[in-house]
Amino acid sequence: MAEEKAKLVNDDGVGAEKGILEVKPSPQKGLKSTLIDWLEQLIVKVMYDSSQPQHYLSGNFGPVPTETPPTHNLPVKGHLPECLNGEFVRVGPNPKFPPVAAYHWFDGDGMIHGLRIKDGKATYVSRFVKTSRLKQEEFFGGSKFMKVGDLKGLFGLLMVNIYKLREKAKVLDLSYGNGTANTNLIYHHGKLLALQEADKPYVLKVLEDGDLQTLGMIDYDKRLAHSFTAHPKVDPVTGEMFTFGYGHEGPPYITYRVISKDGFMHDPVPITISEPIMMHDFAITENYAIFLDLPLYFRPKDMVKDKKLIYSFDASKKARFGVLPRYAKDDLLIRWFELPNCFIFHNANAWEEGDEVVLITCRLENPDLDMVNGEVKEKIENFSNELYEMRFNMKSGLASQKKLSASAVDFPRVNEYYTGRKQRYVYGTILDSIAKVKGIVKFDLHTEPEAGKEKIEVGGNVVGVFDLGPGRFGSEAVFVPREPGTTCEEDDGYLIFFAHDENTGKSAVNVIDAKTMSADPVAVVELPYRVPYGFHAFFVTESYWGQGMIFGAIHEPPQKESVNQKSQCLRFVFLSFRRVSHIRTRKIRGKERSNSRKHLYIIKATLEQLKEQAY
């Protein structure tokens, strides 16, 4: 009994609820690890152009090196309204270790920046989400996991093989996934979840002083066996959470799930589509779930052939939208609608109106993930994202769309008490040429947009713009109502967001009036340290503290195979070094360089040998 009780507490002395998996990976150092590192360095030296700029590792996109424990009594200009008692949290990519080669904005380790507000006083904290990936790279003291930024051309194929070698040789432990938990935050069934769509959710605890602890990974009592979207939806009326996961190994490529208000995950519902895609978001109404089968395909062959990132947009394909009864047990009743090709990162909301299902979304034409890779500045400057209304007629089977804004708008938010129901106002970020947030915009969906507008300014359906000013940039703004529920006016509340002044190098949290969108902030909280630009945010209300966390049993970690194979390892190293010892170098313009063809042959041969020996 005492031994059982001991399992309820992890290394930090924090208990965990049933369904939360204690994350204790078992990476392994040794000769195999060293040799694979050496091979990776060789591939990078021969194949990677290190002169390429890394925009998303510089300026205020660049990471901060350390966490910040709770820092209390911060300077506040203005006043913090009582409805903001709670904690404002925002997550984003913050690589703890420099990348081996390329870096994509999606790649960094998840770091949460929090502002605890209590009785008009503010406390700042920042913490990494303690993922399996982060723990293993801390063990090695450097970057070991594959990155999206590396997945381009032949170099990408070789880096995939390096990653697989580390897995097969037991250098990396992938039994807990490989996610970064860097994308979004959501609260459901007494848990704050940190999300990234390639992994399962991580559970966080917000302490009274604002500090943040990672409790572990949630698998819903072993019922979750696939990835989990970064954008699940919580129905404010029923308390249920609706989610999905997507994969690339084989059909079904999409799996839909419903989680009860009590935290029970119902059986999986496979969604049939033709080939693997990236599906970043979806939507719900009172009676339907809306899936986005958009032509951004997972095509490794195109990656090598066209020297593109592994996700490739096919402009010859239509955009498809699947409307499924949200409690369906299979996808037999799904209705598919077609519209001109596009990609969508983020939806604002959806609802039903007569025979139609209405989706308010940010539509991107001809996407190229290099736009957020940071290597080609011209592509970043061509970023175009606009607010759209899409309608799907369940009676006629027809679909239509209407443009609601100029470019570029993203990170749309609404009053979340209206999720899945018709609402009037949408709040979004105004992006500049390099995807920095230069302002916050408020749209009134009851008003028609002004035709021919080429920039976002007040007029028509744009009823408010908060301009951050020259050299100042923000992030996703979260709406916090003055009173909970829908009894007050929909826009009666505040928008809260992180901001950074590139002129002074200082960061702050801004609070503005969501109703008036006044240029004078309600409050500005000065932060003690720089906060990099990031992704999505959430406001944890004071009432959540009262709900607490229910502690229970932790699942046993997966059993690991023995890797004590000294003789095999020695033979492995001998053979590998015998291969690489044949490398001949020559002097070219005073620099020692390797013969590329010979290097490629040796890399290929060594990879084959490594694969054989890793089993």
How would you describe this structure to a colleague?
- Residues 1-16 and 549-595 have low confidence and may be disordered.
- Strands 3, 29, 30, 31, 32 and 33 form a 6-stranded antiparallel β-sheet that branches. The protein has a 5-stranded antiparallel β-sheet with strand order 1-10-9-8-7, with no helix packed on it. A 5-stranded antiparallel β-sheet has the order 2-6-5-4-34.
- Helices cover 16% and strands 32% of the residues.
- It has 615 residues and is an alpha+beta fold.
- Its EC number is 1.14.99.n4.
- It is an enzyme of class 1 (oxidoreductase).
- This is carotenoid 9,10-dioxygenase.
Key terms:
615 residues; alpha+beta; Methylamine Dehydrogenase, Chain H; five-stranded antiparallel beta sheet; 16% helix; globular; carotenoid dioxygenase activity; carotenoid 9,10-dioxygenase; dioxygenase; metal ion binding; oxidoreductase
